[in-house]
Structure to design on (340 residues):
């Protein structure tokens, strides 16, 4: 009897800790539940699980959703910032399911680990739209569609730009020593940009990648990683930085070390995103080229939702338009016409 009682207590404690009901289903977290406004039953309720606010790009991306998914446009947006943690995103998606939102929009921090939660959303009959980064799942029917950037193409473009630039400088055959500040390991932009650049690098035996290290897409870590590179290696020719905020940190580290970068500097700097502050830094001569990642996904996702509401089919994969910028371009004119 003693053993049975102890067993019941252990079970109860496990259920409390794991958040399960006696049926094994997740317990609704009332603090996370947001009632759909009573007088707005016609609104489309969208739960958006955002990665975080680690970069200028990310903030522009959040703003693009906030400005489109408004009450005036017929939406009720439940916005959850995961602070760069997958566990927070998993919880957010489960909360959206409990809240019975009409659509879930997920920007997954990394590509793996989503199967179970997407099965739960599918079982609940809630369409999931993946944005920006991608998911790697057993069954692609677990999500409705994906919209975002071709990260591999961005990496390839950077490699090809460098190829041409070195040639134009008469350095095509020189030994070129490089370092890469990578994004969050396992995230689509990290994987795509690294692979895309590597596909060009393998054509050049004289290009030597000294080290890859993650700066997690943040300025502070970008600076730390660049400090480490500068202490470890002499004569770095090229810095590949997988986003603009890490580049800002890297430029600080380079300048603090008494070195220079950009078209007239000691090191060539290649960056990704092309946010306004990076184009300004390019204008100031600190970045050579920047490969755009378009954060303005809000209206594309809204169009997708409208199509789904009309029971129309949507393309499974949708890429956004992107270009690149370098210091030979008229950057002031370019910045005038840009939203980010
Ligand atoms: O997923 C897009 C990437 O994530 C952007 O390059 C970066 O700035 C962001 O944090």
């Amino acid at each position: 009897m003693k053993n049975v009682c102890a067993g019941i207590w252990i079970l109860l404690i496990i259920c409390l800790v794991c958040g399960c009901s006696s049926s094994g289903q997740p317990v609704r977290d009332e603090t996370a539940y947001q009632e759909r406004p009573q007088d707005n039953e016609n609104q489309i309720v969208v739960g958006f699980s955002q990665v975080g606010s680690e970069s200028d790009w990310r903030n522009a991306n959040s703003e693009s959703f906030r400005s489109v998914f408004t009450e005036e446009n017929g939406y009720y947006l439940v916005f959850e910032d995961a602070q760069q943690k997958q566990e927070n995103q998993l919880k957010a998606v489960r909360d959206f399911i409990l809240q019975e939102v009409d659509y879930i929009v997920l920007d997954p921090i990394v590509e793996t680990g989503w199967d179970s939660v997407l099965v739960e959303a599918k079982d609940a009959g809630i369409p999931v739209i993946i944005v920006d980064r991608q998911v790697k799942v057993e069954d692609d029917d677990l999500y409705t569609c994906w919209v975002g950037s071709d990260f591999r193409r961005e990496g390839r473009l950077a490699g090809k730009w460098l190829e041409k630039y070195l040639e134009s400088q008469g350095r095509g055959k020189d030994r070129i020593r490089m370092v890469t500040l990578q994004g969050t390991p396992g995230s689509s932009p990290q994987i795509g940009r690294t692979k895309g650049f590597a596909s060009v690098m393998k054509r050049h035996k004289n290009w030597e990648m000294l080290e890859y290290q993650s700066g997690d897409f943040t300025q502070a870590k970008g600076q730390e990683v660049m400090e480490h590179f500068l202490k470890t290696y002499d004569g770095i020719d090229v810095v590949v930085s997988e986003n603009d905020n890490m580049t800002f940190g890297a430029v600080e580290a380079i300048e603090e070390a008494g070195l220079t970068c950009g078209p007239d500097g000691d090191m060539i700097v290649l960056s990704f995103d092309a946010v306004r502050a990076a184009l300004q830094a390019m204008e100031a001569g600190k970045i050579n080229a920047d490969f755009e990642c378009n954060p303005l996904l809000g209206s594309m996702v809204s169009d997708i939702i409208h199509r789904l509401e009309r029971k129309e089919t949507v393309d499974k994969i949708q890429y956004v338009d992107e270009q690149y910028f370098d210091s030979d371009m008229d950057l002031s004119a370019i910045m005038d016409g840009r939203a980010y």
About this structure: DSSP finds eleven helices and twelve strands in the chain.
